[in-house]
Amino acid sequence: MSESPSAAAVRHALDGAGVAATGEACDALAAYLVHLYEANTRTNLTRIPIADAPAMHVADSAAVLRMLPAEPPLRVLDAGAGTGFPGVAVAALRPAWRVTLVESALRKVNALRALCEAAGLTNVAVHHA
Q1: 76 in helix, strand or coil?
Q2: Contacts made by residues 61-69, CB under 8 angstroms, sequence distance 24+
Q3: What residue spans of the chain are helical by DSSP H?
Q4: Rounded to two decimals, what is the model's pTM?
Q5: Which residues neighbour 43 within 8 Å (Cβ) at sequence distance 6 or greater?
Q6: Does residue 19 register a pLDDT over 60?
Q7: Beta bridge partners of 75
Q8: 56-102 per-position pLDDT tens digit
Q9: pLDDT on residue 1
């Protein structure tokens, strides 16, 4: 397996996408990715190689923020959340926002809940529907 994504790799990907991020957001996203790829060894969650994760998952997802107002804090719904992106990136980059992930596959719902908790994303709710 390739080296795990670091906060520096996440920051580099976000900088390349033109999205500003705090150190806490980069740490949370890096932790989420590490736990995502650990969980992926047990449950098929993604086919994206770990080396490509910051750019493919985080930077691409952060592009959503360019279309949304920064203030006031919003409530965001990610329907068909899959691996949690773009919702997880939005939650990490906008901690005052409330993000709801909705997923129909129960194995992914359980994984999403564990991943958000492991990354310390307290502004995310995960629903099975």
Answers
A1: strand
A2: 61/85, 61/86, 61/87, 61/88, 61/89, 61/90, 62/14, 62/17, 62/19, 62/21, 62/86, 62/89, 62/90, 62/93, 63/17, 63/19, 64/89, 64/90, 65/19, 65/90, 65/93, 65/94, 66/18, 66/19
A3: 7-16, 23-40, 53, 60-62, 87-93, 106-119
A4: 0.88
A5: 107, 108, 111
A6: yes
A7: 98
A8: 778 888 888 888 887 788 999 999 998 899 999 999 999 999 999 99
A9: 40
